[in-house]
Design goal:
With about 200 residues, this protein is α/β, with parallel strands linked by helices. About 35% of the residues lie in helices and about 30% in strands. Bound molecules: S-adenosylmethionine.
Length: about 200
């Protein structure tokens, strides 16, 4: 197993093992600010095809569906794909980010909430290209990630942390234009806002 494969497989194995605890710990998280940041950048008058990239156990698939859209989940954890499908009734693709294959799919929007930071830096340009290709013209990518200037292990999970400028560089290189960004949680001083959210348009 090479270094990137190890990062990916150990991280997914961690989520698989702790799937029920993760659901209990995150099912009530309020990420409506992020859901609306994506939807606000897209047409309001129609049902949208949305990819939930790294969907976890399905909290946000359910939200998008309730709002009248057609979400599809994607996750490397087989346990999460099953849970997400059972909880939301939405289709889920059990794929790893490094081997993501969206042939035959097109989306209006992609919601990558707390997921893209798990992609090792050498794979990030490729993954962003695949997401860019899967979007329709004027499609929108939402990303929210813990910010920083490093990469490494947090327990059994690998993460690659970027600040605004470097996030923007990766996104622009893949053909996106960053429309706006904000830090979370809302209403805190910046040093207590570990999350960076970006809304980016396919150009
Ligand atoms: C922090 S969780 C976020 C889950 C969900 N989006 C949420 O907001 O609750 C990260 C998700 O990414 C998935 N993931 C991590 N690395 C992955 C990889 N290399 N390939 C596919 N899925 C991966 C995990 O299984 C997990 O569902």
């Amino acid at each position: 197993m090479n270094d990137s494969e190890e990062k990916e497989q150990r991280t997914i194995a961690h989520y698989d093992r702790s799937a029920n605890a993760f659901w209990q710990g995150t099912k009530d998280h309020d990420v409506s600010q992020n859901i609306h940041a994506l939807l606000d950048a897209l047409p309001k008058d129609k049902a949208l095809d949305i990819l939930d990239f790294g969907c976890g156990p399905g909290r946000d698939l359910q939200q998008f569906k309730q709002l009248g859209h057609r979400p599809v989940g994607l996750d490397g954890s087989a346990a999460f794909c099953t849970m997400a499908h059972e909880y939301s009734g939405c289709p889920t693709l059990n794929q790893t980010f490094s081997e993501i294959d969206l042939t035959g799919f097109t989306f209006d929007g992609i919601f990558a909430n707390a997921s893209l930071f798990h992609v090792p830096k050498n794979h990030l340009p490729h993954v962003l290209k695949v997401l860019h290709q899967a979007l329709r013209p004027k499609g929108v990518l939402f990303t929210s990630n813990p910010r920083g200037n490093s990469d490494g292990w947090q327990g059994q999970r690998y993460g690659h942390y970027l600040e605004l400028e470097s996030s923007q560089r990766y996104l622009e290189q893949a053909g996106f234009k960053v429309l706006n960004h904000y830090y979370r949680p809302q209403g805190k001083p910046i040093d207590q806002q570990p999350w960076l959210a970006l809304v980016s348009l396919k150009t």
